[in-house]
Amino acid sequence: MPHPVSPFRDEARDVATGHPIAILPGIWEIRESLAPAFDTPETWVSLFLLTDPTGHASPVMIDTGVPRSTHTVILPALEALGFAPSDLKVAVNTHSHHDHAGSNVQLREATGCQIWIGRLDGPALLRGDRFGPDEIPPHSADRLLDGGEIVNLAGRDYEIIDMPGHSPGSIGIFDRERGILFTGDAIQARGTTTQGVPGASNRPAYRNTLARVRALPVEHLLPAHAYLPFPPAHVTPASEVHRYVDVSREAIDTIDDRLASAIRTAGGSATIAVIADAICADQPRTPVLAAPILTDYLNQMAAVGRVRHDADHWILL
Ligand SMILES: [Zn+2]
Fold first, then answer.
1. Of 45, 55, 85, 270, which one's alpha carbon is 20 to 30 angstroms from that of 103?
2. What is the architecture of the domain spanning 258-316?
């Protein structure tokens, strides 16, 4: 049966084509477009398909994309590599957000696979979600991961790494022998072009996660988006991974001062739109997610008396 063609297909960048891109032996990147919620053509989520080069073990998906992704990219990618839908036994979610767990229900229905996720992100699946036109029905995972487990995925042992901060149940999936770490959105350098800033609702947890990654022997970091200023999907070698972690740490440590300075430059009081424009001035366009993420940081600054909120303005104290 032919698969539906995504209206957001971008052949030049392999986005939404269902064409698996070889990253490392047994690791394939599958790019799904994040349009129309984000209208920037360079914006996509990288899903990963793990396969066993010896052909013995079943393939495994890391993340399931947005609701349409089962049919626009995942089933076509499995087929391109010679697998039937029923060969997929497990999909692991790096976290619960709509572009990572968005096609869980469709994928489980189409393949019979189990859905695994970090325990603290399990409740978000049970609640369901809506993001732009994407509706994610409430559903449950088949297995909740605590971090610390060793799981066999596509014939290799992976360690589950607890990586909270971006979401409470964010996990990393780590092949210690090869130094390969899948991180989802758990660590974000300077954020994506849709954000312009890193999104970490719990900063103490995020800093601990950065320290944890810095201490791991990682040669290949595989994040789910192109986080500025790094190339998409594959950060290597170890020295670049260290730089990625250091850039992430600096971005999260300087955001309060950058926000304060943006408000000061605007005369001591500014709307979130003015603040977001100032913070993201070096971005090609105003990132759609900057305002809600920055509002979250401003609320944390308000809690320690550095700013206050009055009507639609933020005032520097
Ligand atoms: Zn994401």
1. 55
2. Orthogonal Bundle (1.10)
